[in-house]
Amino acid sequence: MSEWVVLLRGINVGGINIKMADLREALTSAGFTDVRTVLATGNVLLGSSLTADAVKAQAESTLAQAFGYQAWVVVLNVPTLRAIVESYPFDAEREGWHPYVVFGSDDSHLTELSALAEELDSELERIAEGNSVLYWEVRKGNTTDSAFGKSTAKAKYKATTTTRNVRTLVKILA
């Protein structure tokens, strides 16, 4: 039995509202064990003997059936998430800045987004490549209107990426 981190994209922020108790119940009913949620933004820890790809498929199918929306999730194991957090290349406690990790399930999309690095205003934001993630640092108040923020919001990336604050990831691992 492995412990998996399942990151849901776009719930409780854009019209898709799911109570965490309902989310836990749906995933437990689907056969996952020890289902726990962290915060109300789609961060789930659960147990399963399935592979990461099978957990992704089962979770997405369960969410679509239980909540009536096309669900997109990123699945990783706990050691991988820990390594991602520990490898954050910027100062996660930098005053006035947000520390983010962009997770992706399509490496070509992460590569496309990574190519924006040279075009970004370093006084406003910067990105760095990680292991199947992008690290992003952006001034507070500019997350959604920065060049990178606007790019990650494009429909093209909706089904393959999700972004989390490093502080949230630390809470997931606690």
Automatic annotation (TrEMBL):
It comes from the Bacteria. InterPro entries: DUF1697. It holds the Pfam family DUF1697. PANTHER family: BLL4334 PROTEIN, DUF1697 DOMAIN-CONTAINING PROTEIN. This is DUF1697 domain-containing protein. It comes from Rhodococcoides yunnanense.
